[in-house]
Structure formats: C-alpha cells, structure tokens
Amino acid sequence: MAQTSPKRFPPLSLSRRDALRAVAAAAVLASCKATTDPSVAEAASTAATSRAVPDVTLRDACRAAGIKHGAARDHYIEPEDPMLDRLMERECDVVTPENGGKWAVFQPQEGQFDWSRFDASVELARRIGAQPNWHCALWQHMGMPDYMKLPQRRMAELGIGEKAYFSAEGTLSPDNYWQRFTDMVAAVKNRYGDIFYRIDVVNEVFFWETGRSHPQEQDRYGFRRGQWWVAAGGATKGPEWMDPFFHHIRKEFPSAKLVLNEFGIEIDEGWQQRKRAYLQTWLTDAVKRGVPIDGLGLQSHLMAGKPYDRDGMRGFLRAVDRLGLPVHITEFDVDERHLPRSWSRAEKDRAMAFLAAQYVGDIAGNAKLAELVWWHLRSDMNYIAREFPELNPHPSPYDAASKPLPIYEATVQALRNRNRA
C-alpha cells in the first residue's frame, strides 16, 4: 500500500439552504395527521413504490425530529457512482465509511498508511454538505491488521478458541497496545482534525453467541475475551478496561459524539436478552465513573422472520434514556433470509417494512434518537445483496434504480408516530 502525505480537512458545516429545508420539513410534518394504526407500514409500503422522489424525504423527517440522517459508503466497492452520490446528497447529513475508517484498511502494516478509502468518504461528506463519522477506532473481533492481533502461540495458553483474535504475524501485547493505539489516533487526528460527528470508539466488544462459541470466551461481565480485552487487562481490570480508550479519544476529538457500538440485542432469545443486560450494566456503571461516552450505537441489523423482543427493547431503551445517553442507529438494514422463500417480493417487503417501522418507532418513542444511518442507501450496495445476489434482497430503503422501497415510507411514518408504550 502506498504511503500518502498528511492531508488536513477543515471542519464541515451545513449550508443555509439545508437549515431552511429543516424548517420547511418541520412545517410539512407538523401538518401530517398522525396515526397509531398498526397497518400503517403496509399502507405506506404501497405508496412508497409509486414514486422515485418521496414527497417528504427521510432526511426531512429526521430533521424535523432533531435526528441526523445518513448512510455508509465505500469507494472501493463502488468507486464511481454519480447516481448514488446524488441520492446521498439529497438524503444525508452524515456519511460513514463502511470500511475506510477501519485500522486494517488505512494502516495495514505498522507505520504504513493508505488513506484513499477514508479520504473518499470524508471528501464525499464535504461535497454534499454532510459530516463524516469514524467507524471504528477499535474492533474487538475483526477489522484489525494481522500485526494488531495476538500471537498465534498464545491461543492454547489463553484457552480462547476464536481464531479471529490471533495471527502468526500477531505481536499485540500488554506492553505495546497503548502506544500503538495512541499513535493510530494521532495519525487520524493529524490527517482530518476534529471533524467527525460520531466516533465508534469500540465496536462489538460484547459476546456474540453462535453454534461455534465457547463459554470460556466470555468473561463474567459479558465481554468477548478478544485481543483488546487480553492486551488491555480485562481479566484484572474488570469492566473498566475500556475506559482509557474513551478518555483518550475525547482528549483528541472533543467535538465528536463518542459511542460504544454494538449489535445483536433485539431478538426475543435468551442470549440476546442476557447481552442486553450486560450492556445496560456497563453503560450504567460507565456513566457513574465519568467515562466520556455520548451515546449508545446500535448497529440494528434487523432479522425479519425472527421474534423481535419489543417489550424488552422498550424497557432497555427507557433505561438508556434515564442515563442521559442518546441512541445512534449506526448500521441500519433488514435481513430477509429468515423469511419463507415461497413469499413474493411484495410480501417480504411488507414484512420488512413493518419490522423497521416498529423498531425505529420504539427507539424514537422511548429514548432520544440522535442519528439514523443506513448500511447503504441502496439495497444493491448492502453486504447482504453482495453475498446473496440470487435473493435480489431489499435490506435498504432504496432499490438499485434509486427508487424508494416500502421500508422507506414505513420509516418516515414511524418517525411521525413515535411508538410510545
């Protein structure tokens, strides 16, 4: 990867035109008659497919509710796409680099940088009058270059079976992790300055239960016993092992919203309910300790066809709200792979739209929703479509031709109605 020279990006701000649009959007939505009819998502889905440009955009609906709206973009996967850029200009207040902000991408070798994909997202944000996010500083599970993993030889010693934490080239240790972390943060700060709206300080640090999971890979506080947990002393420091990372990034990026970014807490299954409880406990204690955390990032990769734990999520959201922490939907999409294959495209779209509307409405109605970011605006760009093209899936609010899907209007309706219990 080529070494690039430092490049500074001045702060971004919304234009006067965007501010006026926000005022206009509020007036439009205020005139709309609210409804609590549970069939609203289905009714809205039909209307959404009949026009290419929505009467009220999702950005308008979000702005009227005081929410940032945006999407992920990766300029390696889709390097040139003027139609997509125009769509993002119409819809986005924030832009997340899907992969460009990950350590393995911009610093694949120690001391060697390739900023091209990170730069592209920052430059896109500037061009369309949005702000960039940084996803993510630390990823407990993946997204790390081999040298930032634990040495392969330590697997047996640590009793951890997850291979993603280890590498034959791994040299991460308690002696070097902090210097490497602060050097990486300094490199990002030197290149971009304090311009990010949100920074995902840590990503996916709590345990994810699968058929291959082993109980010994989870500590008693619910954390994965991953490479950062090992190097930073999770075994002896308990739940405070993450605190220094938040404090350091706050010092370097005082303007950014710092969040812990997690996934897998929405389903009505025991292990996800336990994970939700671990997360709530850590957030509660972190606020008491004075950890500089500004919100909770929920990836929100919803699974249509799985049981959504609506009551449990509402209680959890109210608990987060009592802590004074806004919720950021950071990677929103709906996975249809658990729906019956025999269903028609329209039937799947209606079910997915209804789930998305419930979920967004529950967050907006029971907590302070600060941000709604899709994991790509167009469905053909989403990882589900890339991995399962034979399904022609619709995980995102637009189709490949930039026409809104039923999930789009359903989300607009959910923001209007707010599903308060």
Automatic annotation (TrEMBL):
Q: Which GO terms describe its molecular function?
A: endo-1,4-beta-xylanase activity
- EC numbers for this chain: 3.2.1.8
Q: Name the InterPro entries on file.
A: GH, GH10, GH10_dom, TAT_signal
Which residue stretches, if any, does this entry annotate as coiled coil? Answer: none
Pfam families the record matches: Glyco_hydro_10
- What SUPFAM superfamilies does UniProt report for this protein, alphabetically? (Trans)glycosidases
Record field: catalytic activity: Endohydrolysis of (1->4)-beta-D-xylosidic linkages in xylans
Q: Which residues form the GH10 domain?
A: 61-414
Broad enzyme group: hydrolase
Keywords on record: Carbohydrate metabolism, Glycosidase, Hydrolase, Polysaccharide degradation, Signal, Xylan degradation
Q: Which family does it belong to?
A: Belongs to the glycosyl hydrolase 10 (cellulase F) family.
> What name does the UniProt record give this protein?
Beta-xylanase
Organism of derivation:
Azospirillum rugosum
